[in-house]
Structures are given as C-alpha cells and as structure tokens.
Amino acid sequence: MLGAAHCGRFAGGDAVSLATGGKVLEGLRQAGGGDRQALSAIIQASDNFSAKEKACALDLVERALRAASDGVENPDYRLLVAVGSSGAPEGYVCFGEADFARGAFDLYWIVVHPDARRRGLGRQLLAAFEGAARAGGARLLLITTTAREDYRAAHGAYRAAGFTVMARISDYYAPGEDQLVFAKKMAARSLSPARTK
Fold first, then answer.
1. What is the DSSP string of 17-80?
2. How many CB atoms lie under 10 A from the CB of residue 92?
C-alpha cells in the first residue's frame, strides 16, 4: 500500500547508472515510453494491491511516461525499473524528494512482478532508491505503508536495509489496518534550501 496518497505528478527519463556503497546496481534504468505495457502488466499482476491502488499506480506510470516522452523533467517523482535478462521490466520503484522538507525523500511504490519475486529485485530497487536519494542530498528516507500481514516480507526488507518504524497510526487505512512510517537517517551533509512549489 505504498503511494496511495501520491497519484499526481511524476517524470521518467533516460538510462541511469546508480551506485550504493560503491556497488553498481546492474539492470536498473529510468522508465521510457517503451515500458508502458510491461509496467502495466506488472501492476495488474500484483496480488496485494486493491483495484484503487492499481489505478493509482497506473496513473503515476502513465504520467511519468508521458512527461518523459515530452522531455519534461520533474524531480518530484522518479521512476526506475529493474530489467531482466531480456531487457524487459520486472519491477519498478517510484520515489521523490518531499516538498518543504530539506533533504527528505519519500518512497512511494516498489512493485515486482509475481514471477520475478524471491530473487532480490525488491531489495535492489530499495537500494536504488537509497542510492539515488543519497546522490540527491538526502538526509532522511521515508516509507509509508500498511501494517497488513501480507506486507511482512516488505517490512523485513526495510528493517534489513536499516529502516526503523518511526510511527504507527492505528486504523489509518481501514478499521484494523494501521499505517507504518519507516525512516532511515542518512549521514549529515550540506543541504540546499527546502524545495517549494
């Protein structure tokens, strides 16, 4: 349940090379117009998103790809795809810098096709988020998600990557479905002023 409140702006773009801790992450690139069908299929195949969440994710992908094809650069949302040996997308991560917060980056969606799960793509996409945010001057990374039991593996991956639960909001998504806010503080850096709209 990542990104349910983030069904607005976004941009993709050209090929990207990412590194975290000196390790280059293979098989990652920014989304392009040719990825539309594959990303739609990944979202539709996801068994843990509601119809509303799928519609939101599809909307963000569509906006991102449209902006990329128009050459629009929008730093609010970034979309990176993990590609398989065939070069086709098998998953993606959507993230961006928070408005009015100096150096805070939000992870909105990580989606991996069910056939590509259990191979570390989710962890690779999480590392790509961290690496790109670090390159953008991040001081704080945030992940807002559901506390549902079917997200236990994702919660474990966030904890293994050094994120901790900073907040739990009872009954946020529905009665009995809490919201979790995971956070990870980055090494102190010189920060530019907070972005404003």
1. --EETTEE-TTEEE--GGGHHHHHHHHHH-SSS-HHHHHHHHHHHHHHHHHHHTT---TT-EEE
2. 31
pLDDT at residue number 20? 42
Q: Alpha carbon 190 to chain centroid distance?
A: 24
For residue 140, pLDDT beyond 90:
yes
pLDDT at 191 exceeding the cut of 90: no
Least confident interval from 12-16, 85-89, 134-138, 151-155:
12-16
Residue 98 exposed, middle or buried by CB count within 10 Å (0-12, 13-18, 19+):
middle
User: CA-based diameter of the chain, in Å?
Assistant: 44
Specify whether the backbone of 13 is left (phi greater than 0), alpha (psi in -120 to 50) or beta.
left
Amino acid at 21: G
Residues 7, 60: Cα–Cα separation, whole Å: 6
pTM: 0.79
| 76-96 tens-digit pLDDT | 677 889 988 888 899 999 888
- Structural domains for the chain: 19-185 (3.40.630.30)
Q: What is the DSSP letter of 194?
A: P
CB neighbour class for 61 (10 Å; exposed up to 12, middle 13-18, buried from 19) = buried
Of the candidates 177, 3, 1, 11, the residue with the CA atom closest to the CA atom of residue 107: 3
From CA 145, how far away is CA 49, in angstroms rounded? 12
